[in-house]
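Blinded run. Sample ID left blank on purpose so nobody reads anything into the name before looking at the predicted structure. Input follows.
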Amino acid sequence: MTFDTAPEVEEESVENSEKSYDLASGVVVVLFGSAILFTVRDYPTLPSGELGPSLFPGIIGGLMVLMGLLLLGRWLKGRKAARTNPAEVSDTAAAASNPANDTAPTPVYWRGWINAGLVVGSVIFYLLAVDFLGFLTTVIVMTVGLILRLGAKWWVAVPAGVLSTVGVWLIFNKVLLVPLPLGFWG
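Blinded prediction complete.
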């Protein structure tokens, strides 16, 4: 497999950028998890006391809130460490104000953005095609295409895509008894 290699970056700048992303990511994940928990509270309960339709979304929402809070905690810890160690902050500020240390703008690595766009596009493709093509055909096409895009050989991508899709279908359709669209096959 081939991947773009990232440029050499000072460890300090990577840590600072990760800390700033922790705040934004943590807030977004907590908000989405909270929205899921707010939505599933209105799901119906089963009279027999069995697990209802809110179980799995509730678990996902709860885990999202927990992971978001962990990110926020990491951000707060990094912020507190920066306040208690002002020498580190002053070194960074001095390096930033020194014109000898000016560097070119950070390059954009388009391959990563294209791959992320293809994942979003494949979800849209799934939503549009699953009723006609069926779950198995749609997800096999998506999975094989994405694996090929990541640089795998066709003889690895095709079996991996087919086996993973059939495995997911078996779990949902046979074990969890969730009917998945058959499309023109059924």
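Unblinding after everyone has recorded impressions. Residues 30 and 65 are 4 Å apart (CA to CA).
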